[in-house]
Amino acid sequence: MTDVSNHNYPEKLDLDKIPKCPICSGCFLYHLSFHDVIAGQHKSYFNIYRCGSCYFLKILPEPTFDEIVSFYPEDYYSHQDYEAKEETTSFAHKFIDKLQNTILDLHYNKKPSSGLFLRSISWLFRNSISCMPVKQPKGSGMLLDVGSGSGYWIEKLSRYSWNCKGIDIIGKKSDKNIIGDFLKVPFETKFEYIRVHGVIEHVIDPDKYIMRISELLEENGECHISTPNSNCLSFKIFKKYWIGLDVPRHLQVFNDQNLVLLFKKYNLEVIRRSSELSSGAFISCIYIYLRDKFGIAPPHPNVWFFLVIMFLPLDFFMKWFNQSVNMVVVAKKPDNRQTTSS
């Protein structure tokens, strides 16, 4: 059981010290407090405030950059080369990697190298890959993966006519993968497609990220953002144990309405909203609860894989009803010439 006697509880902010919501300028109200259960990097509790108008969730007071760096353990999944991680040698990760390749081959009409069994499964899961281009480029073919880590996805997508670049603050540097600050690194070209998967909830100033994305998109280019959606059933059920909070690494959490408002601020037109297949979401919430209450250790990757499979029908059900933990919001940069002529 978690020993709460060693935990530090922050004081709630005075009303005059609470900033306005960066999306709608509404007022933040205290919502809940929780600590780092998943990684256990900090014993301190963190206060999460919610905007009374658009329901944007944010940790306040906002941590400093040095504090944020300390939130991430050395083995945090996006910091490592995917191929070098110990658990990627497990059956689960090898199977998922092959399944992803086969699904992409299916979308791009490329002859798959896998067997009939895997091709059949890939057809059933053909819509499970989201926040990803699944059609040939229409314009320049330039693709930017923000939060690329080791460059896992840019290597995959480079096989399908996309000219890929990736950027991350920490990761594996290569000719295609830049290590640096997305807000400061200069780019020589604009992009037809920008992918932002599991990033926007981690950054200090998401406003500036969306503005930068708008600047880098070519006209008619698309940005696909995947991030937790607080307007989902599992948040209502699990509350502070909801996997989408991931305190304290998720500095803020959006929903499917306030993220649209943020896009509109920077002349980006939202053309589609959907739920991402959040495989393992419910079992993750249950695990966080059990770890907080009873201190259970994380299971082996293969055991976790079979637990995920058991809960997969529920995850599909949540996706069909747009209630998944993660949402995907697709925004388009309008063509100024078309706007002017109309």
Topology:
Blueprint: E1 28-35, E2 45-51, E3 57-59, H1 65-70, H2 91-107, H3 116-124, E4 142-146, H4 152-157, E5 163-168, E6 177-179, E7 191-197, H5 206-216, E8 217-228, H6 233-238, E9 252-253, H7 258-265, E10 269-275, H8 281-294, H9 301-320, E11 326-332, H10 336-341
Explain what the structure shows.
By secondary structure, the protein is of the alpha/beta class. It has a single domain (76-341), classed as Rossmann fold (3-Layer(aba) Sandwich), CATH 3.40.50. Helix content is 30%, strand content 20%. The protein has helices at residues 65-70, 91-107, 116-124, 152-157, 206-216, 233-238, 258-265, 281-294, 301-320, 336-341, and strands at residues 28-35, 45-51, 57-59, 142-146, 163-168, 177-179, 191-197, 217-228, 252-253, 269-275, 326-332. The strands form two sheets. It has a seven-stranded mixed β-sheet. The chain is globular. The model is unreliable at 79-88 (pLDDT under 50).
Summarize the structure.
The protein is built from ten helices and eleven strands. By secondary structure, it is an alpha/beta fold. The protein has one domain: Rossmann fold (3-Layer(aba) Sandwich), CATH 3.40.50.150.
Stretches where pLDDT is under 50 for at least 5 consecutive residues are 79-88
Q: Name the CATH homologous superfamily.
A: Vaccinia Virus protein VP39
Q: Structural class of the helices, strands and pairings?
A: alpha/beta
What is the H-and-E element order? EEEHHHEHEEEHEHEHEHHEH
- Give the N-terminus to C-terminus distance in angstroms: 64 Å
Number of β-strand runs? 11
Q: Give the % helix.
A: 25-40%
For the record, the CATH class is Alpha Beta
Question: What is the arithmetic mean of pLDDT?
Answer: 89
Largest β-sheet summary: 7 strands, mixed
Helices, by number, come to: 10
Tally of structural domains: 1
Oligomer: single chain
Percentage beta strand: 15-25%
CATH architectural category: 3-Layer(aba) Sandwich
- Broad shape: globular
User: How are strands sequenced across the largest beta sheet?
Assistant: 6-5-4-7-8-11-10
Radius of gyration equals 20 Å
Quote the CATH topology. Rossmann fold
